[in-house]
Write a structure and sequence with these properties.
single chain; two-stranded antiparallel ribbon; 61% helix; mainly alpha; 264 residues
Amino acid sequence: MPTFLFSPFSSTFLLALSSLTMLSILVLATSEFLGRHLQYSKFWSPKTSSNKIHLPSRSAMLLCYVPAFAVASISLFLLLLPRYNNSSTRIFLINSLLLIHFFKRIFEVLFVHKYSNKMGLSDAIRVSITYVLLTASTISSQMVSHNLEEPQIDLRAAGLAMYWIGITGNLYHHVLLAKLRKEGDREYRIPRGGMFEVIVCPHYLFEMVEFLGIAFVSQTLFPMVFAFGSALFLIGRSYATRNWYVSKFEDFPRHVKAILPFVF
C-alpha cells in the first residue's frame, strides 16, 4: 500500500468513513442491478416513485451539485489565506479539480441538458449529501496526509491526464445527448455519435475515468474507495439503462453494450 497510497491509518474517522461509503455505494449499485433505481431521468415515474415530493429535474440537479460546489469554493478560499501558505500542491490540486468538476456539472444543468421529467426530493437530497461528503472527505483526507511520507510512486501526472480525458469525454457525450431533442421535447431517442455507437452510457464511462483521475492525484484511501464504489454504481446504472432502451426500442442495436465496448 505505501507504494501507491498515503497511510490510511492516519485518521480513524476517515478510515471508518471510507468503509461506510463503500458499503453504502454497494447497496446503491446492487439496487440498480435489481431494478430499484434512484428516481430521476428516464427511471422516474409517478406510478413507481415512492417520493411524495417531486422537483423539476433542473431544480433537483442544482440541489444535487450546488452544495458540493459551495464546499469546494469555501475550502479553496480558505486555502488561499496566508496561514495555509505551506499547504502541499496536492491539496490545491484536489480542491481545484473538485471545484472544476462541480462547476462543469452546474454549467451543464443550466446550459446543456434537456429535461422532460422530474426527480424525487428525497433522492435529490441523498445525492447532494453524497457529493458534499465526497468533496469534504477528499479534501480532509489530503490535509490529514499533508505531513505523511509520500507514496513511493507519484501518480499525479497520470491522474491529471485521466481527469481531463474523463471530464472532456463526459461533456462531449452530454452535448450529443442534448442534441437529440429540443427543450420541452419529451421523446427519448437512441443516442448516436461518439462512443454511443458501441456503448449506451459513454458519459458514465468517462465519469468513472474522471473520478479515478482524482483518486490518482490524491493517492489517499477515501477517493480511491469512492472511485471504485461509484464505478460499481455507474456500471449498475448503465446495465439498467441498456435494458430500458432494449425494452422501449425494437430497433435498438444489439451490439451496443452498456458501458464497456464489446464486453458488457
